[in-house]
Amino acid sequence: MSEKLTNVLHLKVGKITKNKKLTSDKEFDSGIKKYPIEGAFMTKTGFMGDEVADLIHHGGETKAVLFFSTKTYEKLNKLSGNNFVYDEIAHYGENLLVDKIDEADICVGDILKVGEATFEVSQPRQPCWKLSANTATKPMTSIIYNNGLTGWYARVVDEGEVKKGDDVILIKRVYPQLTIEALNRVIVDPFSDKEVTLQAIECPALGEQFKDSLEGRAKLNDPKNEPFWYHKEPQE
After folding, report:
1. Are 94 and 151 in contact (CB under 8 A)?
2. pTM, rounded to two decimals
């Protein structure tokens, strides 16, 4: 398989800066404010020049790069009442901005060739409160979570230079049912599609943090605290 999906419209990186919380004057360190550049070298843990403050929840090899779509920007603008443009600051902390595709078109485990680098899609982005702070929109984190408008993370298979305008080429697809859209749906309600939930938990390409979150949500609220797939029919 070798199919061109889209191009890199913008590549964005950022330094760690002081940011104010939305509900108080307290500050937090974050690299969420990223700005467009023409190109950068992609390492195993992120673009050179791109900084991450919270290494527990962000960055690392599983979350080396965040892809985001103009289609997702447009949906979020409509739902939040904002008019954010996507060719300037990264309102959602995105590294690679693309068009023509979104969360419905990309699957965990997809191998993508972009410039000299090769990526493996690892998981949806799990939104946190910093998205509300960065966009100055209190319900933004909930809007992103409830509507599955997350973008997607990828790990780096091959390092290399990536530039604005590079083709995004799908080289291989292994898990066609595990779209980012489907995973965002079951992280909200694992019972909405048990088959997808089971496949996701067993998928070696899915990031462990997302997998742990999904498995935790799939556990029934009973004394045994067992996942739903372990429950058997009661014996007479």
Report:
1. yes
2. 0.92
In CATH, the architecture of 3-174 is Beta Barrel (2.40)
Token pair listed for 63: 């979350």
Tokens standing for residue 104: 């419905």
CB proximity list for 178: less than 8 A, separation 6 or greater: 107, 108, 109, 196, 199, 200, 203, 206
Radius of gyration of the chain (CA): 18
In whole angstroms, give the CA distance from residue 90 to residue 134: 9
The Cα–Cα gap between 116 and 42 comes to 9
Q: To which residue do tokens 């029934």 refer?
A: 220
Convert the pLDDT of each residue in 112-164 to its tens digit: 999 999 999 999 999 999 999 999 999 999 999 999 999 999 999 999 999 99
Provide CB contacts within 8 A for 181, sequence distance 6+. 102, 103, 104, 148
